[in-house]
Amino acid sequence: MPVTSAKNTKTSTQKLKYRDGRDVTVNVVSYTPDPRVIWTGPANPGGNAEVITNVSAYSVGSGKVFCYSYAVSPFTKEGSGDEIPAVWNYRYCDTDGDGKFELKDDHMGMIVVPDWAK
After folding, report:
1. How many angstroms separate the CA atoms of 114 and 1, rounded?
2. I want to staple 71 with a disulfide (CB 3.0 to 4.6 A). Which of 12, 45, 86, 104 is the partner?
3. Whole-number Cα distances in Å, 64 to 41, 75, 93, 101
């Protein structure tokens, strides 16, 4: 997702697991897109516009990102006072290392680090 700039950039680490159950420390970079990104994603069958309120990129080892998590909220006119906190998340992950990110339906579960991301 191209972003011209970002607000509130934070870096952190999380303890996750590889598919085989081994522990791994994952690097996470989170930011708020600026300007606001209005999106009608494929997971939104109603086609209603949403605002991406936070993006998190997950990587290990070489730093190659294997998963993006997008926090979204319903679109409202900026400054209208009707802003709603993020209410759902989408995850796009490259589970097989082919460089293509697919929408993950298990967006509420734990992120599993694919073996190729070592």
Report:
1. 21
2. 86
3. 24, 31, 12, 13
DSSP E strand boundaries for the chain: 5-18, 23-34, 37-39, 50-59, 65-74, 88-93, 102-104, 112-113
Task: Report which residue type is found at 78.
Answer: E
Q: Are the C-beta atoms of 48 and 42 separated by less than 8 Å?
A: no
Strands 5-18 and 23-34: antiparallel
Residue 42 pLDDT exceeds 90: no
Single-letter amino acid code for the residue at 17: K
- Domain span including residue 72: 5-117
Give me the number of domains the chain comprises: 1
Assigned token pair, 91: 């995850």
Give which of 34, 40, 33 is closest to 57, Cα–Cα: 33
Beta partners for residue 108, in sequence order: none
Tell me which residue of 54, 53, 73, 72 sits closest to 12, measured CA to CA: 54
Identify the residue whose tokens are 């697919």. 102
